[in-house]
Specification:
Helices cover about 30% and strands about 45% of the residues. By secondary structure, the chain is of the alpha+beta class. It starts with a strand and ends in a 7-residue tail after the last helix. The mean pLDDT is about 95.
């Protein structure tokens, strides 16, 4: 089975408490583990101001997760994040193989 590496940035409404941010990260982690994947790194950037207003909000909590999975469909995770009211934005990217190797997420094949 081929291992794939992903990076996802999640921006949670700035009005929410840190506990809600942690809950959303735990939900993502649970979903990934349910797909036989794992979170390699969680980087909480904290609360930051937006460059422009999003949904009448001016700031949000930023979290970046690096994860590895097999060859699975990530659409259900993205759909789940779109449905969470507290998530202002999210962006999921599949890391190119060379970048994933450089970050130590996967081994060179």
């Amino acid at each position: 089975m081929t291992t794939r590496a992903y990076e996802i940035m999640i921006i949670v409404d700035g009005d929410e408490e840190d506990a809600k941010v942690d809950e959303i990260v735990q939900d993502v982690d649970a979903w990934i583990q349910g797909q036989n994947g794992q979170i390699a790194k969680t980087d909480k950037w904290g609360k930051r101001k937006f460059a422009y207003e999003i949904n009448h909000k001016t700031e949000g909590h930023y979290v970046v997760l690096e994860m590895t999975t097999g060859q699975i469909d990530m659409e259900p995770l993205e759909r789940q994040l779109r449905l969470v009211d507290e998530v202002v934005r999210h962006k999921l990217i599949r890391l190119p193989e060379q970048e994933a190797i450089r970050r130590g997420l996967i081994e060179k094949s």
